[in-house]
Amino acid sequence: MRKKVALACTECNQRNYTTEKTAQTSERIEIKKFCKRCGRHTLHRETK
């Protein structure tokens, strides 16, 4: 079963993206993506 999660920019804390991950994974996802607010690629982390 897959679980929907939101990704937030670590620089400005804006929630820009949503993605899915397996429900069994307890680790938080960290992906480098483009932030529209910052105007550059930044690290995005999974939020609660």
UniProtKB/TrEMBL annotation:
The keyword DNA repair does not apply. GO terms for biological process: translation. SUPFAM superfamilies: Zn-binding ribosomal proteins. The keyword Ribosomal protein applies. One of its GO terms (cellular component) is cytoplasm. Keywords: Ribonucleoprotein, Ribosomal protein. GO terms for molecular function: structural constituent of ribosome. It comes from the Bacteria. It comes from Alkalibacillus haloalkaliphilus. This is Large ribosomal subunit protein bL33. HAMAP family: Ribosomal_bL33 (MF_00294). Belongs to the bacterial ribosomal protein bL33 family.
